[in-house]
Amino acid sequence: MTNSTATAASPEARTAAFYELEPHHHPEGASTMLGFWIYLMSDCLIFAMLFAAYGVLGGNFAAGPGPKDLFELPLIAVNTAMLLFSSITYGFAMLVMEKGKVRATQGWLLVTAVFGACFLAIELYEFSHLIHEGAGPWRSGFLTAFFSLVGTHGLHVTFGLIWLFTLVVQLSKKGLTPANQRRLQCLSLFWHFLDVIWIGVFTFVYLMGML
């Protein structure tokens, strides 16, 4: 009688055998990193489509100029070096972050911003020079695909710089809190991702275009 009454009176006990009543508590920040990796994968799809479009339209010059007529490879090599150096300096920022040095982290972030700004300045100069020569994105399918791919990458670098300066201000106000460290790690993934994409652009668009 007692056993049957206890069983009838406590349905939660039977329910708990099938699933837990209490919610799971995930480690703080785990969902942030997972969400950011998902975002990077979606960005990969965007750049994959832009690369595919360039692969299809890259030979459509419409009787206009081609890569050999337009690209200044030494200038693009310098631009590539700027972005590679910025990736190295961001790595230094992450190393001093692990040691808890706020000022040093901010310093390396600002050095990274200088290299990133130089990269953008050279890219904007290239774009303005091409448009001045009459080789704007409206001129041919090749130039439409070129401006779309390289311009999208440059737009990502611009957003990365804004994010970087925002983190410098956050570090001044709150220091290397766990939340700020996660933000720095996410920006590190983003910045190195842009570095990898640019290596693909430099190889596929510029080097192969000059061959």
From TrEMBL:
<dbReference type="InterPro" id="IPR014206">
    <property type="entry name" value="Cyt_c_ubiqinol_oxidase_su3"/>
</dbReference>
<dbReference type="InterPro" id="IPR033946">
    <property type="entry name" value="Ubiquinol_oxase_su3_dom"/>
</dbReference>
<comment type="similarity">
    <text>Belongs to the cytochrome c oxidase subunit 3 family.</text>
</comment>
<feature type="domain" description="Heme-copper oxidase subunit III family profile">
    <location>
        <begin position="1"/>
        <end position="210"/>
    </location>
</feature>
<feature type="transmembrane region" description="Helical">
    <location>
        <begin position="145"/>
        <end position="169"/>
    </location>
</feature>
<dbReference type="InterPro" id="IPR024791">
    <property type="entry name" value="Cyt_c/ubiquinol_Oxase_su3"/>
</dbReference>
<comment type="function">
    <text>Cytochrome bo(3) ubiquinol terminal oxidase is the component of the aerobic respiratory chain of E.coli that predominates when cells are grown at high aeration. Has proton pump activity across the membrane in addition to electron transfer, pumping 2 protons/electron.</text>
</comment>
<keyword id="KW-0472">Membrane</keyword>
<feature type="transmembrane region" description="Helical">
    <location>
        <begin position="189"/>
        <end position="209"/>
    </location>
</feature>
<keyword id="KW-1003">Cell membrane</keyword>
<keyword id="KW-0560">Oxidoreductase</keyword>
<dbReference type="InterPro" id="IPR013833">
    <property type="entry name" value="Cyt_c_oxidase_su3_a-hlx"/>
</dbReference>
<comment type="subunit">
    <text>Heterooctamer of two A chains, two B chains, two C chains and two D chains.</text>
</comment>
<keyword id="KW-1133">Transmembrane helix</keyword>
<dbReference type="Pfam" id="PF00510">
    <property type="entry name" value="COX3"/>
</dbReference>
<feature type="transmembrane region" description="Helical">
    <location>
        <begin position="108"/>
        <end position="125"/>
    </location>
</feature>
<dbReference type="InterPro" id="IPR035973">
    <property type="entry name" value="Cyt_c_oxidase_su3-like_sf"/>
</dbReference>
<feature type="transmembrane region" description="Helical">
    <location>
        <begin position="36"/>
        <end position="56"/>
    </location>
</feature>
<keyword id="KW-0812">Transmembrane</keyword>
<keyword id="KW-0249">Electron transport</keyword>
<protein>
    <recommendedName>
        <fullName>Cytochrome bo(3) ubiquinol oxidase subunit 3</fullName>
    </recommendedName>
</protein>
<keyword id="KW-0813">Transport</keyword>
<feature type="transmembrane region" description="Helical">
    <location>
        <begin position="76"/>
        <end position="96"/>
    </location>
</feature>
<dbReference type="InterPro" id="IPR000298">
    <property type="entry name" value="Cyt_c_oxidase-like_su3"/>
</dbReference>
